[in-house]
Structures are given as C-alpha cells and as structure tokens.
Amino acid sequence: xxxxxxxxxxxxxxxxxxxxxxxxxxxxxxxxxxxxxxxxxxxxxxxxxxxxxxxxxxxxxxxxxxxxxxxxxxxxxxxxxxxxxxxxxxxxxxxxxxxxxxxxxxxxxxxxxxxxxxxxxxxxxxxxxxxxxxxxxxxxxxxxxxxxxxxxxxxxxxxxxxxxxxxxxxxxxxxxxxxxxxxxxxxxxxxxxxxxxxxxxxxxxxxxxxxxxxxxxxxxxxxxxxxxxxxxxxxxxxxxxxxxxxxxxxxxxxxxxxxxxxxxxxxxxxxxxxxxxxxxxxxxxxxxxxxxxxxxxxxxxxxxxxxxxxxxxxxxxxxxxxxxxxxxxxxxxxxxxxxxxxxxxxxxxxxxxxxxxxxxxxxxxxxxxxxxxxxxxxxxxxxxxxxxxxxxx
Length: 393
Description:
Pfam families: KH_2 (PF07650), MMR_HSR1 (PF01926). It contains ten helices and 13 strands.
C-alpha cells in the first residue's frame, strides 16, 4: 500500500486528482459498523495493509467517519470506518460529538455492502436498528477476535443466534458427533462447512469454512473426557420472507439476512485475506473515486492526532483521556527530510497533567515514542515527535 503524504497540500492534491481509471474499473463501498470496541478499526487497518485508523481497548477511539482506500488491479474498495453505534446517553457520558451519533447512519446511506460485528451472544440494538433501516444494502457478519474463545464450539451456537439460523437464504443446522476417549488429551479441529454452496458462486471462497491453519487455537477445549470428532454447520434451502422494511426489533437477537459469515482474528491478521478476496469479488463496474496513490481520505494532521489520542486512551485511566485537547504547534520538514511535529496536550486539571506526564516523565515519553513509531509506518519517513502537557486556562 502507498504511504500517506506528509503534507496537507500533497494529500489534498492527491484527493483532488482525477482518479487514474483502469480500462474496466470496479468499485465497492463498505460500511464497517458495530458496537464500540468491536475491532472495526483494527479490521479496517488490516484490509488496508497499513495502520491509518486509531485502535485502543477503550471505547469510542474512532471519533468520526473516515475512508480507507484499497486499490488492487482494476478494483477499488472504499472502506468507511465509522464510530461505534452508540446511544445518546452514552455519547453524553463520554463527551462525544453529535457527529458520532449520525456518522454511522450516514455511512450506511453510501454503502454497497455492510460488514457487521458481533457483541457477545446477540447483535446490539443499535446495529439491528441500522441493518433494519437499510434492508437493501447487502450485509455480511464478521466474527472478530475468535482467537479469544477457548471453547470453539461456542462459535456454532453464536452463529445460530446471530443469524437466527439463516444465512444467504438457507437454514442452518448444527450437527455434532462426539466419541468417548478418556485417555486422549488431543484437540481436534472445529470444522464449519457449508454443505450446499450455490452453483453460480462455486468460484468464491467459502467463508464458512475454517481449517487448522486458519486459527492457531481453533480447536475444542478438552478439559473433560469428551472429544469432538466432527462438528459442523450445514445449510439447507429455506423459504425466507423478503425483507422490504423495518422489523420489530424488540425481541430480535440476530439478523437472518446476512449473505456470508467470516471468522477471523483481525489483530493477528488471520483470515483477513479471505474477507478481502470476497470483498474484491463483490465489486461492481463503476468509476474509481480515488487516485490509486490515495490510502485514506484523512489529512496527515488528522492521522497524527488520532494516533496520539490512541496512546493517551491506552495509558490514562477511566474518563481522563476524553478531556484532553490536542493542539499542533509545529509541523514541518527537517533538513534531512524528516518530519518534525510538536503537539501541546491541554488537560482540565493539574492532577490529570501529573498522570499524563507520569513519574519522571515516563508516561509522556512512552506515548511520544510509540506514536512516533506508528507515524513512521504511516508516512514511511523519519518522524521526530515532541509532546508537552499544560493545564488549560
């Protein structure tokens, strides 16, 4: 993937530049939606091949919708990385802009396909509301962070819950065969297969398939004396009612209109290529929106702000990082082509300043070092980042 330009002028020129259209261009706009902290930005970064969206274990790291661009041969994927779908009450609690309530919905209006993330054993009400509001936009379900599951057979139950037992218009059936083997402690792989793939899509990767190498830990937890010899999800033809309008969401836990299911660990990059290949094949004929040299619609300063804020979120406790205001005071090219950045971090009280600086300046130094390294990977040049902390008047 191309690096991001270090100057706003160069990035603006690329964004304004007429796209270098191939002979038969194809395009697909993808809205990545889900609950806060579902791993949407991590997945977007993996699809892009370079980290341009902030990632943190705290919720609401992504503050506004931003576009990432994947250009491969004659196809362009436009990834709409959106803030987590949230409620007005939670938005007020975390001091979020009103845009964070509207941006995910706005992204859906412009999407050709939506990728949704799961939350525990049901989809969040905000996600269901969004899917129901835009029923004609095709959607796929991404089960992210599956490497964290010790008992992989839980995936079978999850898939049934999150899809209401239906995928691509076909009914799912869970079949498990167990055999007694008290002396063995070996783990057998979990296989999830689609028994009857549609004939006209036989060339597509089977997204419901999971193999040994796909997941390092994709075997059943064997704490007892029962070992799985086979465990599978099978699809059968089903008459699924057409979905032409909003549904009653009160008792809904899942969505029966997903076209595919993907299981991956975006942080480690596992199976992301399978999803990427699928998305490339879903692209439709149409002109590219961006020049092939564009990786993101964000300005260099926005990327810098987001990456520094990501580190602040990681190292400051509770609600403290949400009150930090960032002011860039220096952004210039050094004598050897390096990027020089100085940013002032304004906090509301002295106690917050002491936390951000840390004992002996260790916290602020670590933030500057890690953010600087990430920025070097984005811009592909040396970056000298200096941070200072002040109490805002």
